[in-house]
Amino acid sequence: MTPQSFTSSRRQLLRHFAVAALLTTVPLSLGAATLPAGYLPPLHAGAFTIVIIPDTQGYVGKGTKATPTLQSPVTNIVFANHVRWIREHLREQNIAFVSQVGDIVDIDNETQWQLARQNMDVLHGLVPYGIAVGNHDMKVSGDAALFQHYFPAERYRGFKWYGGTFEPSNECEKHFGNNVNSFQLFSAGGMDFVFLHLECNAPDPVLAWASEILKRHVNRRAFISTHMDLGVIDKPKTDEGFSKDPQGRMRWSKIHRERGNTPEQMWEKLYRKHANLGFVFCGDQSRVTALHLTDIGDHGNTVHRLLSDYTSSGPLRLYRFLPAQDTVQVITYDTTMLQMTEATKYKSDRASHQFSVEYRMSGARPSRL
Prior knowledge:
This protein starts with a helix and ends in an 11-residue tail after the last strand. It is globular and about 60 Å long. 20% of the residues lie in helices and 24% in strands. It has 369 residues and is an alpha/beta fold.
């Protein structure tokens, strides 16, 4: 992209943003028939929201992949819009938790980590949140030193909702600790939850730790965010394959070399074994963009697996939990354009972005879901 084309695109984005911002003057109490097209409908009584922030790789400015020749400071408009929108709608949307599914940076360098920290600071102390470390957030070896510097476990220990982090037992496991793998505890809608954030292709010691956390909190409903899960099943041999090859649970990995577990292995070694696990969230696959599959665990529980990767564009995911209806509304909402996402380049059908899933909440203990 040339500097001229970037400037033109930015002007166009800002124009759209200004027009979309006018929609916020419409009261949420208006009936659906009077709401503008794409307007976010109001929250149901008794509902709460979990927000999933997809890969936030849309950095532009000096030294970035998108605009390497620009001399302007590095910015990330979409990331900034995400956290600002969440902060401004915490009460209105009854947001109970925020999860970022990895690739919080595009290049593992100080400049992008500083900006990522600045953006997440907007939410810090306002709402429980977690970050799943992606392949762009570390070296191929699994070294996540910059993530550990900018988002260390110590940053969260003062919050009651912070459950803890993987604790290395030897030097070889030091990259897995200090918040690279973490868990959080929160309650909403009269239910208690444990939310694990596992690094991309988490190795066996991490999966063993995660299994113990799920066992320890067996009476809590469990969610997991990890960077790779759904996408192109086998590693594509052509560029076209990243969008057109068969899609499902992935059988390839990117990080930790021979120690890294594929999503298929993570299902077999961890996910399927726990009755309280209900959701696995992921990113990584921008040319798949959105995907929802269900699996049945060893205890008969349904595990919803949901990919959302709207890299460098404006949408995030709102999961609206309606306990009385045993339903979760999945809403893909663009926080830059301030409208519902109806279609994308790789998934043009509305049903990929706006849908509902069944999740038993009324009168059920986690072990009986």
